[in-house]
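Repro:
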Amino acid sequence: MSKKKLWLRSAASAGVLALALTACGGSDDGDGAASTDKGGSVSEGKEKAEEQPEEEKGGGELAAGEKATSEFDEDGTEVTYEIVAQKVDVGTAADTEKLVSDPKKAAGLVPAVAHVEFTVKDGGPVADYPDAGREIQVYADGQRGTILIGASDDAPGCEKSTDVKDWKAGESHVFCDTYMVPEGAKELTVQWAPDRDTDPFVWKFENS
């Protein structure tokens, strides 16, 4: 089954809010973003096999506002994206109660919405339903957060990937993903990689 069909199946089942708490890292499914108007906003801010040449590993830590460039397979269409994590909006315990189906299972956690801008530099166009935004991950104090399934795509400044059609070179879109992280976490990182076998790009944000 293609990535696009898998994406559509996941989207269809994400209509009801649910918190994926099956493991420390949570599920990889879902690509919604949650509104956290009452929360604050932090300031911008697997190694592969040993035989792989250093220059092919990609990824690495980036400064606030620094852009990364990476190739990505959009369901058979090769695209080169320029990517930058803009910010992470951190919510409150009150937001958690509104967003999750069982707040008791999310005790001590708050939503963190990562805003990542993608610009098509080369390749494409991407016909519809771009997958690049689904690779966003949020870590809190070194631990991967728990992705929130079915969270709203309507957070301020975020776009729905389902609305993006015929994405051409030079165009930019901001996609978001929402993770539940421990309340009071000191450092948040947004990570993105084109696949599981590539070192991620990492942007650090201090949670003030």
